[in-house]
Specification:
This protein is mostly helical and 151 residues long. The chain has a domain of 93 residues: Serine Threonine Protein Phosphatase 5, Tetratricopeptide repeat (Alpha Horseshoe), CATH 1.25.40. The chain has six helices and no strands.
C-alpha cells in the first residue's frame, strides 16, 4: 500500500483585527504561512496597480487636485493652500472654465466658505499673468451670472 504523505494543515487565515500572541506568530508570516513557503511577488512595471481610480487624462488630474485643495480649505490653512491652488490653475480656457464652474458650484452649495473662496480667487488673479487674470474674471462673471439666473 502506498503511503500518503500528509500535508501540513494550513493555519486558518485571520482577519486584521485578530490579536495574536507572539507564540502564535513564531515562524509565520503575516498571511499565516510558514516562512519556507513564501515566494515574493515580482511585479512587472506595467502590471503594478497604480491607483484605485486611474486618471484618464491630465485635465482630470488637475481637477482632482483642485477639488482636494478646496475640500481641505479652512481659514486656518488658507495661506498654505492658496499657493497650491494658484499653482494648479491652467492657462487653457476650456479647463479653466471647468474649474470655475466647479468653484462656483461649490460656493453655492456651501455659502459658509464663500468669503474664503472669494479671497482664493482674488489671490489667484493677483498672481497670474494679465491675460489669464482677465480670462478668470470673464469666466467667473459669466458663471455667477448664469447661476443667479437659474436660481
Amino acid at each position: 500500500m502506498a503511503s500518503v504523505l500528509a500535508r501540513p494543515e494550513e493555519p486558518p487565515r485571520r482577519s486584521r483585527f485578530y490579536k495574536s500572541s507572539k507564540k502564535d506568530m513564531r515562524g509565520m508570516t503575516e498571511s499565516g504561512h510558514d516562512f519556507d513557503e513564501v515566494s515574493s511577488v515580482d511585479w512587472e512595471e506595467d502590471e503594478r496597480p497604480r491607483s484605485k481610480f486611474p486618471v484618464a487624462n491630465e485635465n482630470e488630474l488637475i481637477l482632482r487636485k483642485v477639488r482636494a485643495v478646496l475640500n481641505k480649505l479652512t481659514p486656518l490653512n488658507f495661506n498654505r493652500l492658496r499657493k497650491r491652488y494658484a499653482s494648479l490653475i491652467p492657462h487653457d480656457a476650456k479647463l479653466l472654465t471647468t474649474l470655475m464652474q466647479f468653484l462656483v458650484g461649490k460656493a453655492m452649495d456651501d455659502p459658509m466658505y464663500l468669503q474664503i473662496y472669494a479671497h482664493l480667487v482674488g489671490y489667484t488673479i493677483s498672481r497670474k499673468p494679465q491675460n489669464v487674470s482677465h480670462m478668470i474674471r470673464t469666466i467667473l462673471q459669466a458663471q455667477i451670472h448664469h447661476e443667479l439666473q437659474v436660481n
